[in-house]
Description:
Elements: H1 8-31, H2 40-56, H3 68-77, H4 81-99, H5 102-109, H6 117-145, H7 165-185, H8 192-204, H9 207-211, H10 214-217, H11 221-227
Helix pairs in contact: 1-2, 1-4, 2-4, 2-5, 3-4, 5-7, 6-7, 7-8
Amino acid sequence: MASLPHLAPTSWGLVFALSAAVLLWLVSLRNRDVSIVDIFWGLGVAGVVDIAAWLGQSGGARTSGEDHRYAAMRQKFGRKWWWLSLIQVFLLQAILIWFVPAPLVAAVLYARMPMGVLDYGGIAVAAVALMFESLADFQLAAFRADPGSQGKVMDRGLWGWSRHPNYFGEALMWWGYFAIGFGASHQWWLVLSPVLITFLLLQVSGVTLMEEKMDERRPGYADYRRRVSTFVPWPPKK
């Protein structure tokens, strides 16, 4: 393979993410459903990392119907939504998909470096976080599948210690990835990845949106909010 500039793997990852975002946007115009962007997150992150691995030469289910967040935005912006969705949803997510996995890309590009304490620690943290997030999702799915849970608040299992244990697991996993990437490359700017993910989950697309008007929709949520930690798991108040 011809020699490539050092930034080529990351640059091609950006090209991949933006191209896929525009393609999905065109599909969303046809289907009138912006939720299609959600299926690209996991695939997009994996694609960016795989491209870095290939060029560097180193050794989810979709729900039916448009997500209520996007439906509200569609109603708010009306006729402008067809092009605003390209910028606010698809291209924004493409940039995030390219930037957020930076620690994993760094780990791939510096794969020839020997593994150290940070690498093993990061792997352990990421693995525990993944199991934590998966267990939280499983518990919530079982709760929702129970007809007797209609209108009730999920406050059992991990959800009795954190109101958003799945988001906490997601954030913790990216902190583990940062440790791996930093251990391989020693580049401090990679910390921006988990910081950004944590901020988004807390203030933008996660906790803030999920809890908006939740007190009105679910009786008992105000008491749940008083007793249980918002994000970091902690013993509930009595």
